[in-house]
Specification:
This protein has about 350 residues and is α+β, with helices and mostly antiparallel strands. Helices cover about 25% and strands about 25% of the residues.
């Protein structure tokens, strides 16, 4: 770490040591939302897979904060960065010093060539202001939304022959998911992935996926064979205790900062959707009615939680419609900011 890293006179900034995770747990408040929960996972021992650099701030030998930068395998043009300081030491320059120090530490690695990406709760004015003062600009906003059971009424009820419940290993699902994922993440490009890599990262048992459905409308002259019809919408359900934290829609409900790849079953609890089914749902061709019909069939008796970003036009339109009608509510939202 560069010895010239600026810091308040009472603060020492050093490299990570064994036991710092426990020390941070003592001084940092519990995560209040999924964005903070995922970002907090970055504060860990530096490593090479994924490449991570972490620094720690102390006052009088007591740990008061940390910062980390980690590569993002799914979105390799930018690295994740997270800075967090104990409440009593905020707005004293510690956060600024930590950010400068971890950038300097990463400057000795291939992380130096990457842009930076940070995620904060959208209603955390102090965190947003800190990021912007450090040169970060808004990229997109993500909402986690709870849709009430039966909120979509009879949508698609007369089209049950268009619904296909499938295994998450389905090639049709994987192809639909891959095309959708690339499109909705155009502002933060995803790494090229084979069909097998898409399935492993997002649709496997390790990723927490345990069921899926496709909407395959017959149309006026569509094929009788359901398997030969085009997929216009899909949904994947995830266990509340997800495994590998994927990045659906640019972030992912349980995306523990991409780099961690560790399970964390608290995500829905933090968001407020404990009794709901977590879905990643998407429109393949932009048909709002087909997406509405699919989610309606999956939420007849059970609330569902979905995640939408600004880049998901069809999905956002459906969510806006339901929120305005009072049959869905935003559990939390967070902003993704970048510095390139």
């Amino acid at each position: 770490m560069s010895p010239s890293t600026p810091a308040p006179s009472t603060v020492t900034i050093r490299s990570w040591k064994d036991g710092d995770d426990r020390a941070l747990a003592q001084v940092l408040p519990d995560p209040g939302n999924p964005a903070q929960l995922a970002a907090r996972a970055l504060l860990r021992e530096p490593g090479t897979s994924p490449l991570t650099r972490t620094v720690v701030a102390t006052v009088g030998g007591v740990v008061v904060g940390a910062a980390a930068i980690a590569e993002s395998p799914a979105h390799p043009t930018r690295a994740w960065v997270h800075v967090e300081v104990a409440p009593g030491e905020r707005r004293t320059g510690v956060g600024t010093a930590l950010l400068a120090a971890v950038v300097a530490e990463a400057g000795e690695t291939t992380l130096a060539t990457l842009g930076l990406r940070a995620r904060v709760a959208a209603d955390d004015a102090a965190a947003v202001a800190f990021a912007r003062s450090a040169g970060f600009a808004d990229l997109f906003t993500t909402r986690i939304v709870r849709i009430d059971a039966g909120a979509l009424g009879t949508a698609g009820l007369d089209r049950t022959e268009d619904l296909q419940v499938i295994d998450t290993g389905s090639v049709a699902l994987t192809q639909a998911f891959a095309a959708w994922y690339e499109r909705v993440n155009a502002v933060d490009p995803a790494a090229p992935m084979s069909i097998g890599q898409v399935n492993t990262r997002f649709l496997s048992e390790a990723a927490g996926a345990h069921g899926a459905a496709l909407w395959r409308p017959r149309g006026d002259a569509g094929a009788e064979d359901l398997n030969k019809r085009p997929v216009t919408a899909f949904a994947v359900s995830y266990a509340q205790e997800r495994g590998d934290a994927g990045e659906p829609g640019g972030e992912g409900l349980a995306e523990a900062a991409t780099a961690s790849g560790e399970a964390d079953g608290r995500v829905l609890g933090v968001a407020g959707g404990e009794d709901a089914t977590e879905l990643t749902a998407g429109s393949v061709d932009g048909n709002l009615d087909d997406l509405r019909s699919l989610i309606a069939r999956l939420s007849v008796d059970t609330p569902v939680v979905v995640e939408v970003t600004d880049a998901m036009e069809t999905e956002s339109a459906l969510v806006d419609e339901l929120v305005e009608a009072g049959s869905a509510r935003v559990l939390t939202s967070y902003a993704t900011l970048v510095r390139d």
